Amino acid sequence: DAAINRIAAGEVVERPASAVKELVENALDAGARRIEVAVADGGKTLIRVTDDGHGIAAQDLPLALSRHATSKIDGSDLLNIHSFGFRGEALPSLGAVGRLTITSRAGDEAATISVSGGAMAPVKPAALSKGTVVELRDLFYATPARLKFLRSDRAEMQAISDVIKRLAMAEPFVSFILRDVSGGGEGRVTFRADSETGDMFDALRGRLSRVLGAEFADNALPIDAEREGHHLTGYAALPTYSRGSSVAQYLFVNGRPVRDKLLIGALRGAYSDFLSRDRHPAAVLFIDLDPHRVDVNVHPAKSEVRFRDPGVARGLIVSALRHALAEAGH
Ligand code: ADP
Ligand code: MG
């Protein structure tokens, strides 16, 4: 029902960047190796995400737009979540707050479906060589009150860029490209990261060099540690590469970007002997653990987590980083 979709949509889609996050995560869940995002007017008039993933079969297109329809879990094990998506809320929400068109190819046939203000048009045949193209136009046109809360095109574009960079750090073997197509046509490439090669640590260093700059990558110590089923990997920068704010702190739990007080506190704790209060460590850290031992379902935006054993996660970060810093002579 359109009204319910619109209310729920507000929780999932706060601004263009949240729409981009949902769409890029869907592309990653579909196994895409190349993801292109085109945006006009800070995402307010157009967001288009093109991927080369496994696509959606024509008969499944209406289902993909139905609330709580997800192909990613069968309902028997809500906690055992390995994909980004699992709520089946993003597409119906986007279809409630903008004009959404999905064109996709699975197998030999491609098809397209559109939904606008919650009203779905019938599936039609389409031409597409591979993957999926999701186009969201005129975000919040049906809810002008929300439109007013959006920031400038520039600020919204910055937020979109941040979302893509975070996901690009988590997926170094996937190519990402962001275009600003505000002026029409091919537009201007504002971020590009080609797929990295080598082992996970090589690939991640390459990707971090691309996203955060060579200086971060050159000053970063590899982290690889384990405690009670919690695996910690990534790079932590030398104290000399600290920042005046927490801008260079990127934390991921089971591959999802998170902002979590516990983890940020642990990161600070690891550097407490080396940094004054006004300096912030820089690090990109991934914690991977059994999904049953962490709740990523705290909020629809999925950026907060709740650990079953918070002390283990914290202790692991503090000890692994202190160890790496000590090895580097600190
Ligand atoms: P969720 O990701 O939580 O399952 P969504 O509303 O984001 O819910 O997507 C609904 C369904 O549509 C997904 O479960 C998936 O089957 C399909 N889907 C969405 N985007 C893509 C895509 N880019 N490629 C392939 N399938 C997709
Ligand atoms: Mg999704």
Write the layout of secondary structure elements.
Elements: H1 2-12, H2 16-29, E1 34-40, E2 46-51, H3 61-64, H4 90-97, E3 99-106, E4 109-116, E5 119-120, E6 124-126, E7 132-137, H5 144-149, H6 153-170, E8 175-180, E9 188-193, H7 200-212, H8 214-218, E10 220-227, E11 230-237, E12 249-253, E13 256-258, H9 261-270, E14 283-288, E15 294-295, E16 306-307, H10 310-327
Parallel strand pairs: 1-8, 12-14
Antiparallel strand pairs: 1-2, 2-7, 3-4, 3-7, 4-5, 4-6, 8-9, 10-11, 11-14, 12-13, 15-16
The structure holds adenosine-5'-diphosphate and magnesium ion (MG).
Magnesium ion (MG) binds near residues 22, 25 and 26.
Keywords: DNA damage, DNA repair
GO cellular component, one term: mismatch repair complex
GO molecular function: ATP binding; ATP hydrolysis activity; ATP-dependent DNA damage sensor activity; mismatched DNA binding
Oligomeric status: single chain
CATH topology of the largest domain: Heat Shock Protein 90
Secondary structure class reads alpha+beta
What number is the mean pLDDT? 90
CATH top level class name of the largest domain: Alpha Beta
Number of structural units classed as domains = 2
Quick one: overall form?
A: elongated
Stretches where pLDDT falls below 50 for ≥5 residues?
Answer: none
- Name of the CATH homologous superfamily of the largest domain: Histidine kinase-like ATPase, C-terminal domain
* N-to-C span: 59 Å
Order of helices and strands: HHEEHHEEEEEHHEEHHEEEEHEEEH
Q: Rg from C-alpha positions?
A: 20 Å
Question: Would you count the extended β strands for me?
Answer: 16
Question: Tell me about the biggest sheet?
Answer: 9 strands, mixed
Strand % is 25-35%
- Count of helix runs: 10
Helix content: 25-40%
GO biological process, one term: mismatch repair
Family: Belongs to the DNA mismatch repair MutL/HexB family.
Organism: Actibacterium lipolyticum
Keywords: DNA damage, DNA repair
